[in-house]
């Protein structure tokens, strides 16, 4: 798998910024049409992409398919959102005046994803960013490049259909950057990336957040899950879910610590009673 140089990443981000300047002028419902077509591509290729996620990330097949279904679901949500980007009309004390609230896109949205959810995280960010008028630049995990290539191809298919139906999408609207930490740092440091959504370890979050704050960029950070579980014997359970197999499922089911991962499990036993 060929990775790119930092200079190439810089060029891709610059191209995405130019794409943003054109894409923000496309009416939001029309932008939603592109995301609708992406959802259709995902529905058509759900089985193939789900199996690829399972193979590359090491998930059980139901988890791979479930992840693709989450991509489809967020596309459906974003399509509806494209016709609901409302603004408020606000009363003012000045006569014959009114105040209107208008939402504007930010610009290039940077996405850094981890290997345990290699495609769903991209879609959660990309679908919403696109309907809101932003361009997207994605740095996937270097451990799961094949799923990123597959998603890039599916988005390309949706883009081709969008243009065939009369839509106009600027070149550079979506870019994928294959590489290691140095490429992620380019995305985080670039002045034309006003928002970075990064998923990964807490150590990564501690490195990313100060850099974004230093240039007043926005951060969406989803970092390492670290939950605790208390398991009690069935006779003293207050809920039928207390003795569920979820602690056994969480790590192997996702091949890595997801949001529901358990790092500490405490088993409580009933003390013996003697007369």
What is the fold named in CATH at topology level of the largest domain?
Aldehyde Dehydrogenase, Chain A, domain 1
Spans of at least 5 consecutive residues with low confidence: none
CATH architecture of the largest domain: 3-Layer(aba) Sandwich
Order of helices and strands: HHHHEEEHEHEHEHEEHE
The rough form would be described as: globular
Structure classification: alpha/beta
Spatial extent as radius of gyration:
22 Å
Main CATH class of the largest domain:
Alpha Beta
Fraction of helical residues = 40-55%
Strand content: 5-15%
Number of domains: 2
The tally of strands reads 9
User: Please, what is the CATH homologous superfamily of the largest domain?
Assistant: Aldehyde Dehydrogenase, Chain A, domain 1
Average residue-wise pLDDT? 88
Descriptive report:
This protein has 275 residues and is an alpha/beta fold. The chain folds into 2 domains: 6-222, Aldehyde Dehydrogenase, Chain A, domain 1; 227-267, no CATH class. Helix content is 48%, strand content 14%. It has 9 helices and 9 strands. The chain has a 5-stranded parallel sheet, sandwiched between helices. A two-stranded antiparallel sheet has the order 1-2. α9 links the parallel β8 (227-231) and β9 (262-267). α1 crosses α7 and α4 (61-81) packs parallel to α5. The mean pLDDT is 88.
Condensed summary:
The chain has 275 residues and is α/β, with parallel strands linked by helices. The protein is 48% helix and 14% strand.
Keywords:
two-stranded antiparallel sheet; 275 residues; 2 domains; alpha/beta
């Amino acid at each position: 798998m060929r990775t790119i140089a930092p200079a190439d990443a810089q060029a891709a981000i610059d191209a995405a910024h130019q794409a943003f300047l054109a894409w923000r002028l496309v009416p939001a419902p029309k932008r939603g049409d592109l995301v609708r077509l992406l959802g259709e591509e995902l529905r058509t290729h759900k089985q193939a992409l789900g199996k690829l996620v399972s193979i590359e990330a090491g998930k059980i097949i139901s988890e791979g398919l479930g992840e693709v279904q989450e991509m489809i679901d967020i596309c459906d949500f974003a399509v509806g959102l494209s016709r609901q980007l409302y603004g408020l009309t606000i009363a003012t004390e000045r006569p014959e005046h009114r105040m209107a609230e208008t939402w504007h896109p930010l610009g290039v949205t940077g996405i850094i994803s981890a290997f345990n959810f290699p495609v769903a995280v991209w879609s959660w960010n990309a679908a919403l960013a696109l309907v809101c008028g932003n361009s997207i630049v994605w740095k996937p995990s270097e451990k799961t490049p094949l799923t990123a290539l597959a998603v890039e191809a599916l988005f390309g298919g949706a883009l081709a259909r969008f243009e065939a139906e009369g839509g106009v999408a600027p070149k550079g609207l979506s870019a994928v950057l294959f590489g290691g930490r140095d490429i992620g740092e380019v995305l985080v440091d670039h002045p034309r990336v006003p928002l970075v959504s990064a998923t990964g370890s807490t150590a990564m979050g501690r490195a990313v957040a100060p850099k974004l704050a230093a240039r007043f960029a926005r951060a969406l950070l989803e970092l390492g899950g670290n939950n605790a579980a208390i398991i009690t014997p069935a006779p003293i359970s207050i809920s039928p879910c207390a003795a569920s197999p979820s602690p056994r499922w969480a790590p192997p089911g996702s091949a890595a610590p997801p949001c529901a991962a358990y790092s500490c499990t405490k088993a409580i036993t009933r003390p013996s009673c003697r007369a």
